Request: fold
Amino acid sequence: MTAAVIDGKAFAAKVRAQVAAHVAKLKEEQGLTPGLAVVLVGEDPASQVYVRNKGTQTVECGMASFEHKLPAETSEAELLALIARLNADPAVHGILVQLPLPKHLDSDLVINSIDPAKDVDGFHISNVGLLGTGQKSMVPCTPLGCLMMLRDHHGSLAGLNAVVVGRSNIVGKPMAQLLLGDSCTVTIAHSRTKDLAAVCRGADILVAAVGRPEMIPGDWVKPGATVIDVGINRIERDGKQKLVGDVHYASAALVAGAITPVPGGVGPMTIACLLANTLTACCRANGLAEPEGLTA
Ligand SMILES: Nc1nc(=O)c2c([nH]1)NC[C@@H]1CN(c3ccc(C(=O)N[C@@H](CCC(=O)O)C(=O)O)cc3)C=[N+]21
Reply:
């Protein structure tokens, strides 16, 4: 059997179209334009490309984009002062501080200085706690995108065995919370898990978020399982730069029921969910009904 390919790129385009339609309605009926501020500290080339993509897609959806590029040697006080200004700016509904930050900056402190209502990454400690207790929160973009694709593919996720490989605060842990919220039986596995292969083979839903190129081979995949590959690893093969996931795609696709490719899977959905979260934040800030199907 060959797996169905879950086309994240096409799915993301649909999500962005929904966002754009809702934004148009907000403008017409309320005179409101959702705004997203993206803060980039330093000159990492990959981050620059990525921040530019976010800005372009934000504007394409009819929203306002505010880019703040600060030099690598920006002090913590300067960064916190910028965040305070964005927190107070009514034109800004979402704030994203691109991670990782340069080492001299305390990212927990910086993230927790963002107004939780504007924390479109869902990384603020207060949003983490709200998600963990099943309350309304801002949900991290990558796990939200994965959840949307899983719901679309399966309908109900109730009772399915979900294994999340990776325990990061930005993907693994919130992904596990969302799957639990949809009544999966959830296992969080990681580098110290005993017999990781056997644990993975028990998964109806396998989410790989470890950041190791092609670490999960096809024979760790249960026949018919749904595989969500969060990894985006830049490697060199045959003298060429290549993007691969955390799953060995060719072998996994022979066994899985459905699989997300890299590129074109989770990545585009992450940005689409960032735009959806910005719209949601704008609606909440103004006491308006939230867009349907774009939140957890
Ligand atoms: N505060 C913060 N929030 C983030 O959400 C965040 C961050 N910092 N720092 C960096 C990572 C990385 N990330 C990606 C999102 C989409 C693609 C994406 O669209 N990838 C394309 C390929 C792009 C390419 O060709 O390089 C794809 O998978 O098809 C990649 C990477 C969000 N991040």
Summary: The pocket of 5,10-Methenyltetrahydrofolate is lined by residues 50, 96-99, 121, 141, 232, 243, 262-264, 267-268, 270-271 (CB under 6 Å). The CA atoms of residues 15 and 185 lie 27 Å apart. The first helix runs from residue 8 to 30.
